[in-house]
Predict the structure.
Amino acid sequence: MATLELNRIVKAFGPVDVLHGISLTIESGRFVSLLGPSGCGKTTLLRIIAGLEGLTRGSLTIDGREVTHVPPEDRDIAMMFQSYALLPHMSVRENVRFPLRMRKRGSRAEQEERVRVVLETVQLAHLADRMPRQLSGGQQQRVALARAIVSDPKILLLDEPLSNLDARLREDMQVELIELHRRLGLTTVFVTHDQEEALSLSDTVVLMNGGRIEQVGGPQDIYASPRTGFASEFLGSANLIAAEVKDGSDGKRAHFASGASVAVPAATPTSKTAQLILRQEDLLLLPPEAAADETFMASVVTRVFLGARIRYVLRVGDLRIKCLAPGTDFYAPGETVAVRVRDGRAQVIDG
Amino acid sequence: MMRDRLEDFALASPGLLLIGLGFLFPIAEMVRLSVVGPDGGFTTLHYTRFLTDAYYLGIVWRTVYLSLLITAICAAVGFPLAYVMARVSPRLRLWLVVLIILPLMTSVVVRTFGWMVLLGRGGLVPSTLWKLGFVGRNFSMMQTEAAIVIGMVQVLLPFTTLSILGVVMKIDRRLEEAARTMGASFMGTLRTVVLPLAMPGILAGSLLAFTLSVSSFVTPSLLGGVRLPVVAASIYDAATKTLEWNFAAAQSVILLVGVLLVLTPYIKLSGRRNG
């Protein structure tokens, strides 16, 4: 368990900068996810923390000790790879003992005992003598996890460890990771491109884009109040609409798509070039006769039935917006609907 | 179905014919010759002569231990070389492969004469050693076992290196990275991860080096000279100088059986691995 500090980390591959000065402090015991689209530099940053990648400028410290130029084996970290990277020529038991063997932790008997305990934690004790290729994907993943926590590292690094699992197994593993983190309290850095995974697993989300940190915050926080257009679109794929904020008789309103408008918080500054953020799930579809002051009219373009929800694409003027409605709200393509935004959920950022 | 099989056979027949005529037939003839006595009848005389004479046993021993030494050096040099080649950029790797294959492009005789120039009295290697003070006088390294080993290693290193390279290229680089994050140093990773996973390539390459070096003739003869004969040279002498064809055939059979004995456990081993 340890604090991790990143100081203005710059990474260049040849003439191309992939990280433009990342500064971040991760408190001891936190579960932090680095979230962003592919190519945003999140994996490179994780590899820099691990010591697998050198950095061009900047520094990093683990537990107060500067480790910028320390090789990976001396950083006292553990990393779980997307491909699991189990050593194919060693049994499950030998794989899990490997970090203890390399770090010379205790006698052979003590190591064996520790391996036994950890394998029981991940419910794999009965497969200890199998070879990795004899295991299913989910089991291999547990071995990788056991191997990562066995040496009680200062920092646990996870590189999209769940992305190779099928949907159900992934949900199970998410719960398991949360419980494991609660029990062990390891400082954990988790890389993912899946925003739901980031929001559900971590207590801090670091949203990255184009080699920069876009926003840092708790999951609810960063979801509820995105500071940039990118943040709003990436988290919950909100509609981002060019709008004009004006004072009206009934408070501030954002006008868009020639005619439509929604109420926005009173603190919003008036602006001709604002960006209106409308989350898909904050849009309620009503029959056209329910039209009122706070609604705007739209027509249904497509409807995708998802089970619990229905995704609609609506047209407002010449604008297309997406909407996630409850699975019981049925409107046919071509129908006109009245759209109401949940109270206080319309947000505006500078365009 | 029948037609297909017939066509398959037709396609394979030129190759099979060549193997039959150029390999199986001479071998059968060699085996027959090796047991024909001076009177034309069956005899094991040639075998007992070879296997009971200390002179010939000495030749066998020299051949075997020089081959083992050459093989070991090829593997020991080839593995790190192959590892570096596998981990550099594709462009640089291509150049290294070209560099390694280059010696194979010249005739073995030309290459060996090159070594004679370098190793002979006043040659580059002995005179450098002398000038640096490692040896007391200028001397010739020709007609020594060291010369045979040096010459053979150069010939066989490409075979070993390329066999190992093929296997190391297939080792997932992330396994090494994983080992590093688990506390293994660079050398520790080589030892605990890369070396065991490269073993099939090292075995195949060593086998190739051993079989080629145990039956090699030109390089040992030119660099070792008549004082240090190997089995292949002894066969050559019997066949061309003393004209004892039957004795030469017997020695050839012994060499062939020896190589097969080394090959068999390996084939069984790799068969199990694949199966």
In short: The two ends of chain B are 28 Å apart (CA to CA).
